[in-house]
Amino acid sequence: MREYITDEFAKAVANMQALADDVALAEQVERSVLLCTDALRNGRKLLFCGNGGSAADAQHWAGELVSRFYYDRPGLAAIALTTDSSILTAIGNDYGYDYVFARQVEALGQAGDVLVAISTSGNSPNVLRAADVARARGMKVIAFTGRSGGKLLAMADLCFRMPSDETPRIQEGHEFVGHLLCALIEAGIFPRDAG
User: Fold this and answer.
1) Which residues constitute the domain of residue 90?
2) pLDDT 10s digits, 22-41
3) Which CATH number characterizes residue 110's domain?
């Protein structure tokens, strides 16, 4: 058991070091923050979707923006498409699970909004459909995936590909980058020194 614990720590540290060494990551974060802050300044919103642990990330990041991250400030327009069980089950029943996010993007998304699409494989059918609808509506798509990017890579304006093929490592990287985005979006819209 000790060996397993030690190995897991080593893998997590190596994963984070690989992220830190990725020279393109900082630029991607900056570009993503600009997409999101521009949308929010123009009265638009951020929509988040994903399955399983990625659904938890969608809810977590939307919550950080609507409530607060580092400090008190007005709420930011962010919606997790993973939270309304009546909507999810109605769409799943009437149209199929592949449409649970796409139908919500169709109903709630507008040109100028941003969809944050989270899929460790980059191939989740319901996330791909949501990205497809978002692009058709004139929305920007920021993707979070594993190493390959999957099919989602080609559908995204920006894609954060984690340097791993292991789901736990991918999710750990997602959480770190998601927190960076939340902090920088918060500071971009409501700088602390602005009063």
Assistant:
1) 2-192
2) 989 999 999 999 999 999 99
3) 3.40.50.10490
